[in-house]
Amino acid sequence: MRDASPSSLDAWLSRLEAAHPVGIDLGLERVAEVARRMGLLDGPVVGRVITVAGTNGKGSTVAMLDALARHHGLSAATYTSPHLLRYNERLCLDGHEADDASLIAGFEAVEAARLDGEPISLTYFEVGTLGALHAIRAFSPEVAILEVGLGGRLDAVNVLDADVAVVTTIARDHAAFLGDDLEGIGREKAGIMRAGRPAVLGSSDLPASVRSTAEALSAPVHALGTAYGVEREAASWRWWCDIGQALEGLPDPGLPLDNAATALMALQLAGIELDETACRQALGSVVLPGRMQWRGAWCLDVGHNPQAAAYVAGRLAERPVAGRTFALLGMLGDKDADGVIEALAPSIDAWVPVTLEGERARSADELATRLEALDQEVVHCDVSPAQGAAWLEAHLAPQDRVLVCGSFFTVGGVLAAWAARAQTETDDRPSEGMT
After folding, report:
1. What is the pLDDT tens value at each position of the chain, 435 positions in all?
2. Whose CA is closest to 160, among 134, 138, 185, 139?
């Protein structure tokens, strides 16, 4: 007898977290079989599929692709991971987070399929991915933009064939699963490419294995700096490419311009004729929480490897302040903490390490030890991102600023605390007509 299905999204997520013995189990055999049972492999799921892999830059590229598609009048769906505050963030349909009912319907469809015959064990991410694809198929967008969770070749997202494959950057991350060899990591990321279909390379510094994978598949290669690129101007920038018209006077989206250029190239290769006005509007309005997100004197960025940290440090250096720059740092245990600290150090005056929850997390004390070994000033340690942020709020001078960084959990913890405080302040405000 089957267990009764959970009735709420939170109950479903709790069940999924406990259902598989490991959180990550790379491989497509299990997930592809369930996808087949669900009918997800029977013909096209959507009009066009753009799949985005890479170490850094995936989230911003997906966000800009989504904004560009919708400003060109196309219906669009995005699937990303992880989330900051709500699981619903992972699936967006025409710019709106999926509601609980749509997500639950997807989970129920996956559960029915995985038990239809010999039961198949799936991870939290695999169920989430198949559930999202079920919801996307029901929505039937003109463009589906899918972010790879880990790697590429063996990631659950790769169960669908990409019409356009994008590889943003390659760096060392998730070493326990992908190793430290950049050529090997590049081959894994390039595993989203398909024979004869366009491959967009979003960095001029990718391992040779990425291009060689494309060439072995006869996938046309469109590389940053060769097939398309960025020219910075005084207050705007210009996008050029070798197969279409250049776009002039584009606004800075507050996200990496290389990723903006890559999004433009991928959308054009998906068969969309780019309109200059629509592109300006899209890039001028795109918002991506947790990526160089400014809230007054606070900057929040989820970057958690040295390459991402170096980008953040460079952006901070472009915006000097009269006061001090503090970093509220929380990191997971499997990340390169020393590399992140060394990359950020030129732009940071003092540090507040915090402890994250979960078995994979590092303690604030361990981070403090690493910081001090690297001759960095630690002014305070705290038990959580929320507590660390509260301490900083009480001790900042008017001209100081704060970088919240190191993990989705660090940024999410601070954003959640701010949201809870805003809700409390709203609840405590007198109702209209009261004195």
Report:
1. 456 789 899 999 999 988 765 555 667 999 999 999 999 998 766 789 999 999 999 999 999 999 999 999 999 999 999 999 999 999 999 999 999 999 999 999 999 999 999 999 999 999 999 999 999 999 999 999 999 988 899 999 999 999 999 999 998 764 555 657 899 999 999 999 999 999 999 999 999 999 999 999 999 999 999 999 999 988 899 999 999 899 999 999 999 999 999 999 999 999 999 999 999 999 999 989 999 999 999 999 999 999 999 999 999 999 999 999 999 999 999 899 999 999 999 999 999 999 998 878 899 999 999 999 999 999 999 999 999 999 999 999 999 999 999 999 999 999 999 999 988 877 766 655 543
2. 134
pTM: 0.93
Kindly give, in sequence order, each residue whose CB lies less than 8 Å from that of residue 278, ignoring residues fewer than 6 positions away: 68, 71, 72, 73
Which own/partner pairs from 87-94 qualify as long-range (CB within 8 Å, at least 24 positions apart)?
87/9, 87/13, 87/128, 88/9, 90/128, 90/132, 91/132, 91/135, 91/136, 92/66, 93/135, 93/136, 93/139, 93/141, 94/70, 94/141
- Nearest of 212, 158, 163, 156 to residue 183 by alpha carbon: 212
- d(Cα 421, Cα 414) in Å, to the nearest integer? 11
State how far the Cα of 186 lies from the Cα of 212, in Å rounded to an integer: 10
| Residue 417 to residues 102, 394, 428, Cα–Cα distance (Å) | 27, 15, 16
DSSP string, 273-324: PP-HHHHHHHHHH---TTSSEEETTEEE----SHHHHHHHHHHHHTS--SS-
Integer Cα distance of 248 and 279 in angstroms:
10
Facing residues of 232 across strands?
Answer: 237
Contact partners, residue 197, CB within 8 Å, separation at least 6: 161, 162, 163, 164, 165, 219, 220
Instruction: Tell me if 156 sits within 8 A of 126, measured CB to CB.
Output: yes
Coil, helix or strand at residue 404: strand
> Which of 337, 334, 338, 331 has its CA nearest to residue 404?
331
Question: Tokens 């990340």 identify what position?
Answer: 335
**Helix/strand/coil for 371:** helix
Residue 300's contacts (CB-CB under 8 Å, 6 or more residues apart) are: 289, 290, 293, 294, 403, 404, 405, 411, 414, 415
